[in-house]
Each structure stands twice: as structure tokens, then as C-alpha cells.
């Protein structure tokens, strides 16, 4: 079985992800549904050896990492078809592979159905913006779209540190440097620290995985750079708590003050299947760092107020909670009643709002989602 043939068929079928393991037929995810890739038999051990060797043939470092740790991240491309983000890992003593299909065209913010306020967030001259959500929620695509929007309107230097590089940027007004972990730099922390010596206006860090990276990102934002990154957190309140709790207890008060000073916004995403079966639509929670939000970040006894502040700040600041976003998507006929409750943070509250027992907020303008 040829790896490129499997991937070609999956991409032509509209797959977002491909899964390969010994003893199963190749699988693909299309519009959130997992299904067989047509035309292929069960994967044999010999097939898997060929797949792994094909993906790793140009990287001895990645081969060594796979043997040492049992898993490795890398990119793979088929000329004229697509690029892929790849994770090779062990399961039951044998290798398995998960591949994410990377889009070749960076979608616009409008096509992603993202709220209009995200354009304003993307135009910030300095500070920290975080895009959060579970794996597969579109974080990398949102970041790429925000950066390409800046690329169209600002003459500046943008440096990205990614693992791996997902979207390929073309210079428009901006000068863009893209660095890939392991290929161009050792890790996120090393790349971020080096970026500060490379005359950046904007720095995008693919993920803030460790304390050192978070510390350096905060310092970069504090010293006048615009820093964007991602975290695998569920919502804004969880994101703030996660960052603070990564630091030793004796440093947390100082960290709250620093985070409150540099944070501009937190954008959290969940992708919900469309009611018409035509792909997915994003439910987006948005926190904007207003004076009241700053106070809630600095004071641990007020952190619980953030959800209420976001809900009440929708009209004035463009903030919104997940539940407000979900209700709006339901009212627009984009998602089903069942999915509205399934993806809500507080299903009982959403159920009441949908039934009209509580008063809804004003609608946000959405476009057409492009994932």
C-alpha cells in the first residue's frame, strides 16, 4: 500500500484527518465523521514500515526521537496536493499515524465565520492574544487568518515559531519569517528567545507548552511586541487559571499583575456540526481585557466574575460567552437543538434561552465558515 495514494484519496474526499494503524483499513474524518477511505485493504505491518520510512526519510533527528520517545511530530507534503501535520506514535507495541490535512490557502476572517471584533483584536499594536480550544477546533487556522489580515494592512516584521509549519505565508505588506521546531530551531522557548533579537513587531508561537515559553512570551508582550499563541484550554476563565497555576505559588501574585497588564484578548473556539450537514461552524467565546476584566485577573477572589463580565460586555466591547454564541447559531438555523445543548457550557441555561424564558443578546455578524 502506497502512503501517497492513501492520502490523495483522502484529500479528494474532503478529509480533515487521516488515521492509520496495523490491522485496520485507513480511516478519514470528513465533516467530523470518521469513515473508511475507499479502495484500500487492511494495513499490514509491512505497509506501516513503509509509511513511517516514507515520512521520516529526510529527518534523522525525527527518526531518533521516535525510537527514543515512542512518538514524534513532523510535517509531510505531496507536491500539487497538500501538506500534512503528522504524529507518529506507538499503540500496542506497533506504530500508528495520525495526519491533519493542512489547507494551502489561508482563509479570511470573514470566511471563517469569526466575529467582527477579531479584526480589531488582530490590529493591536502590542500585548498578548491567546487562541484556545481542544485539538481540532481551528486554533491554527484562526491565528493564520489573523496574521494574514495584518499582512495585508501593516508594514512590519512577523516571526512565527511552529511545530510544524501549517500555513505558508507570502509577504504582502509585512515581512514574514517562519521557523519550524527541530528544522529551524530547537524548541518553542529557544525560537521565541531568539526571535526577540530578530527585530520583530509580531511574534506567533504555535503553542505555549512550558513555563519558560510562557514567561518569555509575557516578557515579549510587556516590552512592546504583539504576541499571539495557543493553549489547549476550554474557555477564557480556564486559560487564565491555567497560566497562573503553572507558576510557583510565591510568584502568582506578580504573575496576575503582569498578565492583567499585557493580555489583550482570549479567543476560545468549539466547532459544531452544521444543521445542513455542510461542514462545521464555530462557536466563539471572546474575552476583551477591559478595566473590569483586569481587576478580575488581578484579584483571585473575583476570577469567577469573568463569565458574567463577558456576557454583559457583548454590546459595548464585542465580548461573548460560548453559550451566547451557541444560542445565536441556533437562532440563525445553523446548528440543531441537540447540538446546541451538547456544545453549550451550561446546557440548562441555553435550553431556557432558546425557549425564550430569558432575554437574548444582540446578534453578531457571521460570514461563511471555511474549515
TrEMBL record:
GO terms for molecular function: ATP binding; ATP hydrolysis activity. It holds the Pfam family T2SSE. Signal peptide: none annotated. Residues 196-210 form the Bacterial type II secretion system protein E domain. It comes from the Bacteria. Belongs to the GSP E family. This is Twitching motility protein PilT. It comes from Sulfurihydrogenibium azorense (strain DSM 15241 / OCM 825 / Az-Fu1).
